[in-house]
Amino acid sequence: MKIGRIKRPIWSTRKVNNLEGIRLLEVEIMPWGDWTLGGSGVTTIVCDNVGAGIGEHIFICTGSAVRDTVFNPEAPFKTMVTAILDQVYIDEKLVKDKNAFLIPVGK
């Protein structure tokens, strides 16, 4: 499970049949723990089944069980968006402006 920020959509003219109609997004992974660091600089590609948009912060899950629940077991993908984050709590305090701690430094 990871938190990420959507950087941009990934476009493709052809996909395997099991990925037809599925949006692909490039996501920057956010580090757990020290929220003042901003983004990690590490990116990954995820399948989007919830309609997340550029700049939104999302919850990412990986593995066969996640894929099998939403897509079909033959889909060649194991990383997907499972939620769009609206509020985040740290040490029982609501972080009111999610951008204040999740936007990467220097970007």
Brief description of this entry?
The protein is mostly beta strands and 107 residues long. 11% of the residues lie in helices and 38% in strands.
Characterise the protein shown here:
By secondary structure, the protein is mainly β. It has a single domain, classed as EutN/Ccml (OB fold (Dihydrolipoamide Acetyltransferase, E2P), Beta Barrel), CATH 2.40.50. The protein contains 2 helices and 7 strands. The protein has helices at residues 64-70, 98-102; strands spanning 2-10, 23-30, 43-48, 57-62, 79-84, 88-90, 93-95. The strands form 2 sheets. Strands 1-2-3-5-4 form a 5-stranded mixed barrel. Strands 6-7 form a two-stranded antiparallel ribbon. A hairpin with a 2-residue loop joins strand 6 (88-90) and strand 7 (93-95). The chain is globular.
Topology of helices and strands:
Layout: E1 2-10, E2 23-30, E3 43-48, E4 57-62, H1 64-70, E5 79-84, E6 88-90, E7 93-95, H2 98-102
| Level-2 CATH architecture | Beta Barrel
Output the number of helix runs.
Answer: 2
The dominant shape is globular
Elements, N to C (H/E): EEEEHEEEH
Largest sheet features: 5 strands, mixed, barrel
Query: Regions with pLDDT < 50 over 5+ consecutive residues?
Result: 101-107
Output the CATH homologous superfamily: EutN/Ccml
Distance between the termini: 24 Å
Overall tally of domains = 1
Can you tell me the CATH topology?
Answer: OB fold (Dihydrolipoamide Acetyltransferase, E2P)
Average pLDDT, rounded to a whole number, is 76
Q: In percent terms, what proportion of residues is strand? A: 35-45%
Strand order, main sheet: write it out.
Answer: 1-2-3-5-4
**Classification by helices and strands:** mainly beta
The portion of residues assigned to helices is 10-25%
| DSSP strand count | 7
Radius of gyration: 14 Å
